[in-house]
Amino acid sequence: MACTLENLRLVLADDHAVVRMGFRMLLEGAGAEVIGEAASGEAALAEFARLRPDALLMDVSMPGIGGLAALERLLAHTPDARVLMLSAHDDAQIPLRALRVGATGYLSKRAQPQELVRAVAQVGHGHRYIDPELAPRLALARFGGGDPADVLTDREFAVFLQLAQGHSVNQVATTHKLSASTVGTHLYHIKQKLNAANAAELALIAVRSGLIAL
Fold first, then answer.
1. Phi/psi of residue 86, nearest 5 degrees
2. pLDDT per residue over 93-121, tens digit each?
3. How many helices (H) and strands (E) does the chain have?
4. pLDDT at 100 (0 to 100)
5. pLDDT of 163-174, one tens digit each?
6. Quick one: pLDDT band at residue 90, thresholds 50, 70, 90?
7. Class assignment of domain 9-139?
8. At a CB cut-off of 8 Å and minimum separation 6, what does 18 contact?
9. Do the Cβ atoms of 136 and 207 come closer than 8 Å?
10. Which of 54, 86, 51, 91 lies closest to 71, judged by CA?
11. Buried b (16+ CB within 10 A) or exposed e, 28-53
């Protein structure tokens, strides 16, 4: 999708003021509006509740409860919150935990500036994002199960591919001329068979299997 940030309202959460300033300059230069900043997990939660941004950009490592705990608390109260988690860590377990908790996206701080713009555009518009440099390693670190083509039925496999590519349940239902409840049933069975908790993990399985590229 196009990397347009026009009309996106963002909150930045990072304990380094210089980092926040750099992010603000880059993102506002691309058309977004940074409406709030935070330097801790607790402050990020307060700013999100006060401002209700289109997306929250949050560092994993911050003072107080930290980014991951803040993510869990936020999603417990606002399940549809769009959160792009950022980290300088190379440990695959950190992004895996963020995605399992329910982060909309994950990006390494080592990414190029244009990749940050792309990630914010995707997350801000409600689409999943996984750092393309991390995705294959995350998939290998987390998933050691069978090939989706072997464990899923033909219909489940077709539904799995579309969901892994970011299509909604309603979009899949329309494409396959099924009811949304039927697609939901397929999704339940797919997640059970592949040991996946959410759409982000389905995407990682698809990457591991060579079915899609992120």
1. -125, 145
2. 678 778 888 899 999 988 899 999 999 99
3. 11, 6
4. 80
5. 888 888 999 999
6. low
7. alpha beta
8. none
9. yes
10. 86
11. eebebebbbbbbbbbbbbebbeeeeb
Q: Is this model's pTM higher than 0.85 or not?
A: no
In the chain, where the domains are located: 9-139, 143-208
Query: Rounded to an integer, what distance in angstroms lies between the CA atom of residue 161 and that of residue 155?
Result: 10
- As a whole number of angstroms, the distance between CA 93 and CA 123 comes to 21
In this predicted model, what pLDDT tens digit does every residue of 176-206 receive, in sequence order? 888 999 999 999 999 888 888 888 888 888 8
In CATH, what class is 143-208? mainly alpha
Closest CA to 149 of 62, 90, 210, 105: 210
Tokens representing residue 157 in the block: 């496999």
CB 145 within 8 A of CB 151: yes
